[in-house]
Each structure stands twice: as structure tokens, then as C-alpha cells.
Amino acid sequence: MGLLQVLIDLLANYQYLLKPMSVSVIIFDCDGVMFDSRKANVNLYNHILFHFGLPPLIDKDTDFVHMHTVVESLNHIFQGTPYVAEAQEYRLTLDYIPFIKDMVIEPGLKELLDFLKPNYGLAVATNRSNTIGKVLAINGLSHYFDIVVSSLDVKNPKPHPESIFKILDFFGIKPHECFYIGDSEVDFEACQTAEVSLIAYKNKALKAYRHIENMSEIKEIISF
After folding, report:
1. pTM for the full predicted model
2. Are residues 154 and 127 in the same domain?
């Protein structure tokens, strides 16, 4: 029974053990990959909570808002209060620029994008909504990406694979022709369903084709 279980596990993980062939597209998650956005997210959601006289985020809620859409995050942190609908309306009135400025671009990201751009299609698949355009523009990244898919561009945000499928269709490629760089369980689930190889960024707990700790390692992977 022990050997049988090992074989079952190997088969289940097979796609993560093989190098994808003919990779032509690299898909990036935004928060936690291109940017350290935890401070920005905490400041945003604490601002909204404070507006309604509620206490700040606790650690487990910080993890939740880091991975999910703003609508899902507000529904989550305001559940059990009478302010869910009001919180959703209030966030639409906010100027996000001060919070975007709290986002820290990942070291080596621009150098990596400069390296990739001439030879690879580049895309973003994010659960951010109407802020992703401003995030990229403020940081001088917009011109690098051929397509950016936010939660507003799909009916089903991550962990559903719709955003990945949209990118595959845009480039006219198969799942084995791209890498997805992500940092969360949400990214893992989306990649698993889409049968796309995940490069896990700064998260060794994720099941992935490769695990990396900095942007420069991506050059080594695609050159392997």
C-alpha cells in the first residue's frame, strides 16, 4: 500500500516534475511577485475599517486580502457587521494613489522584463481590479506587458483558471508553452486546473515546477 501511494502521488505531481517545452510566454502575478504589497493592502483595508469604526486587520485576514479580489476581501473582513454593502460603496470613492505608493517593486523586476521582452510574450494575471493599470503606470511597467487580465476582465477570478485561459487564447498557445510566476495557494490552484507550470516565488510550501527566491533565477530556468 505504501508503494502504491507513492506511485499515485508521483502521477498526481507529474506535471510539476517535467520541464515545459517551447516556452514562449511568461505570466506574472502582481501582489507578492512583482510587488511587495502587504503594507499597501494593510493600509488600504485598515483605512476602510477605521472609517466604519472597526478594529484593524488581524494576521489571517491580512493573508486573505493579499490573495483575493477587493470585493471578496471586503465581504470577508466585514462579515458579521452591518457595513458590508456600505464598505463596497465607500471603496469606490477612494483615491488609491496613496496606497499604491506604499507598494514596493521587487528588486530585479525591470531588469528581468528588459531581458524577457524581446523574445517572450509577457502577461499579468491578477486579482486586482481597477488599480492594476495605475500600479503598472506609476512604476513604469505598462509597456512591458502584451496583456493584463484583472478580476474585472473575467467572470471568475483566481483560483478559477479563466484569467490564464484568457491569456493562452490571446497568444494562441497551449498550457505547456508558458510559465506562471505566483506566490499563493490561489495561484497554485489556478495553474493546476489550467495545467500550466507554476514557478513559486518566495513560497517553498507551494507545489511547483520550480521554487525561486529572486527574479534573476527566472533567467536560469528559461535557459535550462
Report:
1. 0.87
2. yes
